[in-house]
Amino acid sequence: MVKKRLTRDAKWFFQYFPYHQLYMDNELFKGWLAINYLTDGKTMFWEFEKAGSVPVSGKDMVWLTVIPDRAARSVSAFFLPDKRVSAWYIDVIEETGVDEDGVVYFIDKYLDVMLTPQGDVIIDDRDELDAAYVSGELSISQYENALREGECIVKELGGDIRKTETVCRKILEKAEEMIAEDRFTIFLDIDGVLDIYNPDSHLQELMPQAVRTLKSLATRTKADIVIISDWRYGAEQYREKARERGYDRNIDNWDNLMEVFAREEIKICGVTPWDDKIENRTGEIRRYLDGRPGIRRYVILDDCFGDQYESDRELQKHLVFVDALKGLQEKDLLSACTVMNMLR
C-alpha cells in the first residue's frame, strides 16, 4: 500500500502552492479536508469517454480533498477557475494519520474510482488491488472491503453526480470562509536578498533575477509583503524622521525600490516599526506580529547580517536564510513555501 500526503508534495510537486488543512464538523461534512491552490503551472488533462479531454491541474485550479470520518475513502474534487468540478478522483484507503510536520496522510489501498459531471464512471487500478491480494500484501478481508467500498463510492457519489458536485462546492465555500483571514506574509530584507550590498555605493543595485524570484514567490503564494530592511526609513511615515537623521541613502534606495516594484507589479502592504526602543530586527517583527494576531503563516527572508533571530525561537522557525553573496535563489523560494505550509 502507498502513503499519500494531502500536501501532494511528492508525485504532484504541489509544495510550491498554498496549502490549507482543517478538520470540519458541521451539517455539511465531518472529517479532514485539504485545499491546494494551484496558482501557476501548465494545464494537465485526463481523457474520458463521455467528458473528453478534462483539465485536472493548471493555473487557478483548486484541489479539494475530503476524508470523511469512518469512511474508507479520500475524495479529491478538481475545481476549475469558475468553481465547476472537472472530475473526481476517489482513493479507497486503509487508514489516515498525521505526519510529524502536521500534514494529514492516508494509506492508499490501490483501488480508485474516477467520475466526471458528464457521467463517466471508471474503476481504476483493480489489477493492482488483485496483485496485492495474490502476493499476500492484503488479507481477504482487506481485499473484500476495498471492493465493497468501491461499489459504495459508485452508488453514493456517482449515482447523483449533480448532488455530489453541489455538496463539494458548498464544502469548499465553507472551508474558504474559515481560512479567509489566513493570508501568508513575507517579511522581506533587501540588502543581501535583492542585492549584493556595496558599501561604497550610495544607490544599491537590485538584481533583476532576485526581484523576479520574489515576484514568483509572492504571486504563487498570494502573499502580503512587509519590508523589514533599513530601506523602510524612506517610507512615507518615516521619511521626515529619516531626513532629520541624515538617512538620505535610505530614502533614495526606497524610492528606487518602489520604482522597480511598480514596474514589476510587486505590491508592499506594510513595513515593520521604526522604534529606537526596539533593540533589533527580531523585536521589530515581533512588535508587528503582536499588533496583528491574525497573521499565522509567514516567512522571513533575511541574510541575517546583525541579527540571527536567536532571541525568539518561534520567529527563527520561520526564517529562510539567504546567502548575501548570491541574493534570493530558486531554492530559497522552495524553502519559503515549505515554511508557508508548515502546520502546528
Give a description of the structure.
With 344 residues, this protein is an alpha/beta fold. It is built from nine helices and 15 strands. It has helices at 126-134, 140-156, 161-179, 208-221, 239-244, 248-264, 281-290, 313-316, 330-340; strands spanning 2-5, 19-25, 30-38, 44-48, 52-57, 61-68, 73-79, 85-98, 104-115, 121-124, 184-188, 224-227, 270-271, 297-302, 319-321. Strands 1, 2, 3, 6, 7, 8, 9 and 10 form an eight-stranded antiparallel β-sheet that branches. Strands 13-12-11-14-15 form a five-stranded parallel β-sheet, covered by helices on one side. Strands 4-5 form a two-stranded antiparallel sheet. A hairpin with a 4-residue loop joins strand 6 and strand 7. The mean pLDDT is 92.
Oligomer: single chain
Helix share bin: 25-40%
Low-confidence stretches: none
Rounded mean pLDDT is 92
For the sheet with most strands, the description reads: 8 strands, antiparallel
E-strand count: 15
Shape by Cα distribution: elongated
Radius of gyration: 24 Å
Gist?
This protein is α/β, with parallel strands linked by helices. Helices cover 31% and strands 28% of the residues. The chain is elongated, with a radius of gyration of 24 Å.
Descriptive keywords:
9 helices, 28% strand, 344 residues, alpha/beta
